[in-house]
Amino acid sequence: MKKLILLSSIIFWTIAAIAQESFMVKTETRYWDEANAYNGYTLFGTRGTSYLIDMEGHVVHTWNIGTNPRFTEAGTILDAVGGNPSNQNVWRELDWNGNIVWEYTETRTNYHGHHDFAKIYNTKLGDSTFIFIANKDLTSAQCLAAGCDASQTYTNPQMDCIVEVNRAGTVIWEWWFFNHVVQDMYPALPTYGVIVNTPGRIDLNITGNPVKSDWIHCNSLDYNQGLDLIVINSVHGEFYVIDHGNTFMPNDPDSSITLAASSLGDFKYRFGDPAKYDRGSPPSVLANWEKATAGQKQLGGSHDIQWIKPGLPGAGNFMIFNNAENLFELTPQSYIVEINPYLNSSGTNTGAFVNPPDAGYTIVNSPDANLMKEKKNVSKQIVWTFSSKNNTSFYSTIGSSAQRLPNGNTMICSMNDGHFFEVKPSDTSIVWEYINPMTRDGIKKIKVDNYPTYNGVFRAYRYTSDHPALAGHDLTPGNTMTSATPDYYTPADLTGKEPSDDYITPEDILNQNYPNPFSDKTTIAFNISEYKHINVVIYDFSGNQVKSLLNKNYSQGNYTVEWDGTNDNGMRLPSGTYFYVLKANNVQLCKKMIYIH
Question: Fewest CB atoms within 10 Å of the CB: 254, 300, 484, 568?
């Protein structure tokens, strides 16, 4: 009776898992076009560890820190401590061997660090400093005194600030959104102004979004040393450029903070959602409520704002991972967007910031009817966009990054699926692809369908061996994260193979095992159409390889192999659903079976 109940339970879960069979994704390096990729080493953090891998996925080095790591020009690795990008008050700089060379802890209880930070070279100070994003607490009284709508209730309100500290850990500059607000409800208050005429300040009373905890939710920043400017991005679909150089006084923190709070600290440029300052239409449902429009809103849920660095293709332009949440597209998808903020309506580079609504928009139709998208307004300041043809191929609701590489390619990290890939600028073809094997349940050779960020990575960056953090160090590749031999496609695999190559063909057959379910042993039969090297491997329901049954050359013919429910160590496995896979080269056939022990 117990066995019957167990069998019923297993059959139920097997039926529930049928959809997952087509969602099984091999992790680690999946494709490498060595001739066209920008070959180097990829750095990413996952579950408290930072990994440096080569193009094949071999681990070259690790550090016991792994939230949002990046290398510095000083030859160190910089990251937050704790593993959670949304909550970080301790940051460390480590050397190659993991020794702490610098550390900063935010001890003020009304400052709450989160998401992003950077080590910069402060040209006025003549030294390196550290900047980070923090939510700074407000009181309800402060909100009302500034001109927030008095009919609203303000509980635990906060606004983001940017804090700069020197190497001694002293705060030397601070910029706060709360000092750059405008409202049009209370003329007697000093913050009063006409919203449309005040693009350099943020409206305190944005429709439907009163000031609250983590109100602006900034998630990334960057520093432009040549211009001495800082850019900071809000997840709500805007980024803002702030003047650091003209608001910083060397060795005078009080004056610096005062200047940053003055009109000198108002936004020099903003991009993404002009409706927030009455210069465009917001997203909305159309008269036919089955359709919707993004209005003039360009960004939604975006991450990783940056200037493209000097010497790189597109230098001086902004680039951002546009997650594209909340854009009212019927079929959402993510984009990489490059923006030239100096372009006017005729496409002329003016050499000065142009308010995006003044540059205007181009009406763009969907490139394919199957995407089911309405026409949309695309800013004329957008000079390059990447999106997958299949809108869900790298859609990410959270995190993610993009990096312009010296050869013009763009390295992309889509956080939801721990998916890294590199694209060419011309035909946007993929030249390298990798899936993070580290999941909430450990390292997996195969990732099955799961909720977003199951194997998520906040960002990933590519470096070459001559970078100061890598130069002179042992870059001998070790094992892959899964300890598997790299097994990836190359351009030759996309152009066809001679029949003699070891590939699964339509004539190859993998039969259903018999008996199924089984409790003692089962037989797996298969037919090979021609001579080739064959692997037969057993995986558990979570995608872990548990048994290698065959790994040898076979001539044309019919074959069978038995499995007795044990793993590679001869240990009896638990009852459940298992997958058996017939593989030749990178192509495979897969079927499901039920084992009752």
Answer: 254
For residue 365, count other CB atoms closer than 10 A to its CB: 10
Alpha helices in 404-521, H assignment, sequence order: 491-494
Rounded CA separation 360/344 (Å): 8
163's CB contacts (< 8 A; 6+ apart) are 106, 111, 131, 132, 134, 171, 173, 174
Give the C-alpha separation, 95 to 114, whole Å: 23
Band of residue 504 on the pLDDT scale cut at 50, 70, 90: low
Q: Burial level of 290, CB count in 10 A (0-12/13-18/19+)?
A: exposed
Let me know: does 597 contact 572? Beta carbons within 8 Å. Answer: yes
The whole-angstrom separation of Cα 466 and Cα 468 is 6
Predicted TM-score (pTM) of the model is 0.81
Closest CA to 111 of 63, 168, 160: 160
Distance CA 143, CA 502 (A): 69
Give the CA distances from residue 398 to residues 25, 115, 282, 337, in Å, rounded to whole numbers and listed in that order: 21, 12, 22, 16
Residue 227, exposed/middle/buried by CB under 10 A (0-12, 13-18, 19+)? middle
* Nearest CA among 108, 69, 68, 105 for reference residue 90: 105
Which pLDDT band, with edges at 50, 70 and 90, does 500 fall under? Answer: very low
Strand partners, 218: 234
What's the average model confidence in pLDDT over 68-93? 94
Helix (H) / strand (E) element for 460: namely: strand 460-463
Task: For residue 144, count other CB atoms closer than 10 A to its CB.
Answer: 16
Distance CA 293, CA 320 (A): 22
- Given a cut of 60, is residue 18 above it in pLDDT? no
Q: Tell me whether residue 264 is exposed, middle or buried, using C-beta atoms within 10 angstroms of its C-beta: 0 to 12, 13 to 18, 19 or more.
A: middle
Cis peptide before 517 (omega within 30 of 0): yes
Is 379:356 a contact under the CB 8 Å cutoff?
Answer: yes
Say how far apart CA 23 and CA 46 lie, in whole Å.
Answer: 22
Looking at every residue in the chain, the average pLDDT score rounds to 91
Pairing of strands 202-203, 181-182: parallel
What is the distance in angstroms between the CA of the first residue and the CA of the last residue of the chain? 14
The answer to whether residues 107 and 129 touch, using CB atoms and an 8 Å cutoff, is no
Residue 216 near residue 209 (C-beta atoms within 8 A): no
Burial annotation 492-503 (CB, 10 A radius, 16+ → b, else e): eeeeeeeeeebb
